[in-house]
Design goal:
8-stranded antiparallel beta barrel, mainly beta, Glycoprotein, Type 4 Pilin, 1 helix, OB fold (Dihydrolipoamide Acetyltransferase, E2P), single chain
């Protein structure tokens, strides 16, 4: 499975495969074989390249905070497909307002807004099911919903206009 991990402004694709405590981890052109065991709530015992580490892992406000070897790292981790959908969708500025388009083919499962609704950045405009995952497409700007061109149950194609916000 691939993830997008962000640490201190740097973003990397992280590929993790394996299971049962034995994993192959690839970041860029580097590869590690990792033995990982969960020893207590959030405490992981890791063996990486013959070196043993103890890592305390906690979720703080949606970010993964990892404390290892006396250092603390705040890492934002997102499954790669969700990252692509989130970053390729959202509002696009244009002459006709801010247009939210389908980031991939899918099915509309929920439309919580209607024409005339005021929205703020981060408000959910539409939920699209694609590749067996529900993806919330959110407003990236404040405004008023001018058009809603879809309804729950409707199939959409890549690039279809879903919602327009002024």
């Amino acid at each position: 499975m691939k993830f997008v991990a962000s640490l201190g402004g740097a973003r990397e694709i992280v590929e993790v495969s394996g299971g049962d405590g034995r994993y192959r981890v690839v970041i860029g052109d580097q590869e590690w074989q990792v033995d990982a065991r969960l020893s207590a709530q959030g405490i992981c015992s890791l063996l990486v390249g013959g070196v043993s580490y103890v890592a305390d892992v906690a979720d703080r406000e949606g970010a993964c905070v990892v404390e290892v070897a006396g250092e603390s790292y705040t890492i934002d981790v997102e499954e790669e497909t969700r990252h692509i959908i989130r970053t390729r969708s959202g509002a696009k500025a244009g002459e006709d307002g801010h247009t939210v388009r389908a980031p991939m083919p899918g099915k509309i499962t929920h439309v919580p807004v209607a024409p005339g609704d005021a929205v703020a950045p981060g408000d959910t405009l539409v939920v699209v099911e694609a590749m067996k995952m529900e993806n919330e497409l959110k407003a990236s700007v404040a405004g008023t919903v001018r058009e809603v061109r879809v309804q729950a149950g409707q199939a959409v194609n890549l690039g279809d206009v879903l919602v327009v916000v002024d």
